[in-house]
Specification:
The chain is an alpha+beta fold and 1035 residues long. It contains 27 helices and 19 strands.
């Protein structure tokens, strides 16, 4: 009862204090337990340490006896070990007696002095130890045997003599007495050590039992205390919580009149008090809802605090009811807007139907009504037209401040905001106007519009125009939507008007054409009658001519060509007389075969033009055979007409000319052989004395009288038209080839190489006389000569292909690079003899191929001679064929009109191509980037094609306007989504726009020399900006 009375006194005490008391009691019990536990542990550890010392002392006492016997046996180091055992025993003895720190390999602890019982036992041991210690020191310090030490084995007899099998020596008196004393005290010494050790073992067991008993008693106390705590918790907490649970269920079921009776003022009691307040709050809310449901919206519900959701909800409910009337008014306003839009569409439908014959009047009526209807101030209507495949906008109507403006203005399709609106096909609404936008002036001053609206006129996915509106205030969204809807109807009407206008024009033109056709029909009928009679006569004459021509072809050389100079047919008499196979003739052009008979191209053109006009021609034509011997054929050119009176072909009759006109021979300059005046008499003597004989090099057909350049070796004048050319090679010649057959370099290089190195070493060096004043070609030629020099020197030394294999590959690669560079420029500048030049290149490459095949097959020809031939071939090729190209290019360049350098360089500016790698995955930004690429490409195309400055100026303005629009849209997006990137992007945008505006000013002032630099810079800026800066918006 006293306990319950004490508990009741704690009714007003906080649960925290109650449980704190319990916790403190638990801490006290835990402290007592821990203290007592460690006290027992300390005693046990101390006793255990002493047992360890005693065990060591027992072991050391045995060592003392053992080492004493080893001394008598004179075991090595036995006295040292005996001394160490004595010292350790004495140390442990005093450590056990006085206490101290125990340190060994297994244990380290501070031990206390022995208790009284142990001290009594230890005092006996200590007295005995003094005697043992004295005897041990005698054994250690004194001489063991009389007459000196000697190793012996045996035993000590009753007289004290040490007996061995083969000899005996008497012990010294001191040692003998010490040994006898040790034997008498040995058993007692060991026994005392053992008794003390056993006593401490028993002491450890007693301490362990006492500790266990204490733990059991403490456990029972703790169990009782826990049961007591459970009783307190059940009495003070659980029973009261059950009563509160019943009360909460009653309130949750809707009985807000119930109340919780609380007898304590602790936390649980306070919960009940607050819940009573909550029930009253709910009851008040019910009453408030009843009031507002009756329409009483003036009362306010009292809030219990900032977290009172119920009060907030009731306030929102009241406000919702209050706002209902406001929503009703808003719906009425939206109905008015829809009614306004419907009436406007009907109004403009009527306007569009009443003006469908004249685009100008229609545009003005649409514009003035639209400006008035949406309450704008100024506007213009641009209609798109197409002229010379180029689209442009024309300002059909303009209106400002209640009066019509008669303004004429044309814009290119991509120029300005109009062009941008048309390209994007979307309505543009701007409130941040460009700096150069129009200002409206009056007597009181000037002012810029606040907003601009541009709407494309699109019908059937085709742009017909753009409407531009501006106002001194912002245009509402519903008015912008209205303009979008009306724009499609306007575009449809403009399309119809254009069709009507075009139809009227076509009707007028068709009437005029019908009249002309009726006149022409009568004239054609008369002409047809005349033509029929003419065709009948021509057909008869043609048959007669063909019969005659067939007869002639049996006895004379005959061939047929078309007006372009392509061979259509040739009989065997003609082909054999000029030394060309019947197959090869069709790969050649007439001009290339006969050009040696004309002084220049102009003379040939006049000759051929005379035939093409229907006239016959007769002329001696000079052909050069493979042996370089000229042959002259007298040729008769007869044009053949078809049934329509046009020349269909030209028949040519040839027969040999016995005499040679000396004037014709003056025109003969065989391809790849320099003119006569390029040679010196001394060179002929050099040629005759060369160790490589002419017969071996070129055959019997070569004419020794032909001169050669002074700086060429004999092999460079080998027959370029050797009879050994395979027939299949001749069938592949191009129609542009300038001679009937080409030099077979493969045979002249590889077939003339001697089997052994009989040629004296030739020093291969670059000769500046071979310079073409073409930096690229000259550098490539020098590289080739450098490799040839190094290779030839190594070949002359050992003639081993494996030693120059890598250099051979480098040489071949350098030659390939040179040939590709030359042929690329031949194509770009349309070199007249490019096909022949290519054949010469292929021949030297074939020579390399044949040479390598021969070596791979085991045909070890003279390497040095092969590379000398290559060296001589390049000497001749550069000095003749490459010079032709360079000279022709110089003539063409000097005769070409002067073009500004920036236009020539413009060919190097390539259009920008869109790639998915540049996409930032934001559709509106990617679409705008694509449009910017198109605008830049328009400037590049105009610049490359050298269009008028006006075109480039318009494209440039469109690019700047659209760039400003794109930057504004992008910055708006960045500012709302990624503010941390806004300043960086804005700085980059402003710097780039400044560069564009600076260039625009320079360009408009006439400074066009920086156009190429400008194009390269903006291309690089856009690619870098998108791939680095804009790509940060990707995620």
């Amino acid at each position: 009862m006293k306990l319950l009375s004490f508990i009741r006194k704690l009714n007003d005490t906080s649960l925290l204090i109650k449980f704190s008391v319990i916790f403190v009691i638990l801490l006290i019990i835990a402290f007592i337990n821990t203290t007592q536990y460690f006290s027992y542990k300390e005693k046990i550890d101390d006793t255990h340490a002493k047992t360890l010392i005693l065990s060591e002392m027992m072991f050391q006492s045995q060592q003392i006896i053992m080492y004493s016997e080893f001394v008598l046996r004179e075991v090595e180091s036995s006295k040292i070990n005996l001394e160490r055992a004595k010292q350790l025993y004495e140390k442990n003895l005093y450590l056990l007696k006085n206490g101290g720190v125990l340190n060994n390999d297994f244990y380290s602890n501070k031990i206390k002095a022995l208790d009284d019982i142990s001290k009594i036992k230890l005092s006996k041991l200590e007295k005995l130890w003094f005697s043992i210690k004295e005897n041990t020191e005698s054994i250690i310090d004194e001489e063991t045997f009389i007459g000196g030490s000697e190793m012996a084995t045996g035993f000590i007899d009753v007289s004290g003599e040490y007996v061995v099998e083969d000899a005996s020596k008497p012990l010294t008196t001191e040692v003998k007495n010490a040994v006898r004393s040790l034997e008498r005290t040995n058993d007692k010494f060991l026994k005392l050590n053992s008794e003390i050790y056993e006593y401490h073992e028993k002491l450890i067991i007693e301490l362990n039992n006492s500790r266990d008993l204490f733990v059991i008693i403490l456990f029972l106390v703790m169990a009782f205390f826990v049961l007591f705590c459970l009783f307190i918790i059940n009495k003070l907490i659980i029973n009261r919580l059950k009563r509160q649970m019943a009360y909460v269920k009653e309130v949750s079921s809707g009985n807000y009149n119930a109340a919780f009776k609380n007898s304590m003022n602790d936390e649980i009691g306070q919960i009940g008090t607050h819940f009573n307040g909550f029930a009253l709050h709910i009851k008040g809310a019910v009453e408030y809802i009843k009031n507002i449901s009756k329409g009483n919206l003036t009362d306010n519900f009292e809030h219990n605090g900032e977290f009172d959701v119920l009060s907030e909800t009731l306030t929102v409910l009241k406000n919702t009811l209050v706002d209902a009337s406001t929503e009703s008014e808003k719906r009425n306003q939206e109905d008015n807007i829809r009614r306004w839009a419907t009436e406007g569409i009907a109004k403009f439908g009527e306007i569009l139907r009443s003006n469908n014959n004249n685009i100008a009047d229609l545009s003005y009526n649409i514009l003035i009504n639209l400006i008035e209807y949406i309450d704008a101030n100024i506007g213009g209507m641009f209609v798109m037209y197409e002229k010379d495949n180029a689209k442009y906008f024309n300002l059909e109507a303009a209106y400002a401040l209640d009066r019509r403006k008669f303004v004429t203005k044309e814009l290119e399709f991509s120029e300005g905001l109009i062009g941008r609106c048309a390209q994007e096909r979307q309505c543009l609404y701007l409130t941040e106007l460009p700096s150069d936008y129009i200002e409206i002036a009056s007597g009181l001053g000037t002012s810029k519009p606040v907003s601009i609206l541009l709407s494309p006129l699109i019908y059937n996915n085709e742009v017909y125009g753009v409407i531009e509106l501006a106002a001194f205030k912002e245009i509402e969204d519903y008015k912008i939507d209205f303009v979008k809807k009306v724009s499609e109807s306007i575009a449809s009407t403009i399309s119809s008007v254009k069709v009507n206008v075009r139809t009227a024009q076509l009707l007028s033109e068709s009437k005029q054409q019908a009249e002309r056709l009726s006149q022409q029909e009568e004239e054609m009928r008369q002409n047809l009658e005349e033509m029929q009679a003419t065709q009948e006569g021509a057909a008869t004459k043609t048959k007669e001519m063909e019969g005659i021509f067939n007869e002639i072809s049996q006895s004379f050389g005959v061939y047929t060509v078309n007006l372009e100079g392509d061979f259509l047919s040739a009989n065997s008499i003609y082909t054999s007389s000029i030394g060309i196979s019947a197959k090869s003739i069709y790969d050649l052009m007439h001009k290339e075969l006969v050009k040696n008979s004309f002084k220049n191209d102009k003379e040939y053109f006049n000759f051929w033009n005379h035939i093409a006009n229907g006239n016959k021609e007769e002329r001696d034509i000079v052909y050069i055979l493979k042996s370089l011997q000229p042959i002259i054929l007298h040729e008769l050119y007869i044009p053949i007409f078809d049934t329509y009176g046009d020349i269909s072909k030209i028949n040519v009759i040839t027969y040999p000319q016995n005499g040679i006109d000396p004037s014709l021979l003056n025109n003969l300059v065989p391809n790849n052989v320099p003119p006569h005046n390029d040679f010196e008499d001394d060179d002929i003597s050099d040629f005759e004395t060369n160790e490589i004989h002419t017969d071996e090099a070129v055959g019997d057909d070569f004419d020794i009288e032909h001169d050669r350049p002074a700086n060429l070796n004999q092999s460079m004048i080998e027959d370029p038209y050797s009879d050994n050319i395979p027939e299949e090679r001749t069938e592949t010649k191009s129609k542009n080839t300038s001679i009937p057959e080409t030099v077979n370099i493969t045979e002249t290089v590889t077939d003339t190489i001697p089997e052994t190195n009989t040629i004296p070493e030739t020093v291969i060096t670059w000769n500046d006389n071979l310079l073409l004043n073409h930096s690229e070609f000259d550098q490539q030629h020098k590289n080739i000569f450098t490799l040839l020099s190094e290779i030839s020197h190594k070949c002359f030394a050992d003639n081993e292909f494996k030693n120059i294999k890598n250099l051979h590959a480098q040489l071949f690669e350098s030659i390939l690079i040179n040939f590709k560079s030359e042929e690329k420029q031949f194509t770009e500048y349309n070199f007249s003899e490019k096909e022949l030049h290519k054949l010469l290149h292929r021949d030297i490459l074939d020579a390399f191929d044949d040479f390598e095949k021969a070596h791979n097959a085991g045909d070890e020809k003279n390497l040095y001679a092969f590379y000398i031939k290559i060296y001589e071939w390049f000497n001749m090729h550069i000095s003749t064929e490459d010079c032709k190209y360079v000279n022709e290019f110089k003539v063409a360049k000097e005769s070409a009109p002067v073009i500004e350098s920036n236009n020539l360089e413009a060919e190097l500016i390539l259009p920008m191509e869109w790639s998915d790698a540049l996409a930032v995955n934001l559709d509106f930004i990617d679409d705008q980037h694509k449009i910017l690429f198109d605008l830049i490409n328009q400037i590049i195309d105009s610049h490359t094609e050298n269009r008028a400055k006006k075109n480039i100026k318009g494209y440039l303005k469109g690019l700047i306007d659209y760039t400003e629009y794109h930057f504004a849209a992008e910055e708006k997006h960045i500012k709302s989504k990624k503010k941390e990137l806004y300043e960086t992007h804005r700085e980059q945008h402003n710097a780039f726009l400044m560069k564009l505006n600076t260039f625009q000013k320079d360009f408009n002032a006439g400074n066009t020399k920086i156009t190429n630099t400008f194009l390269a810079e903006i291309i690089e800026w856009w690619l870098t900006h998108i791939s680095e800066s804009d790509m940060q918006l990707k995620h």
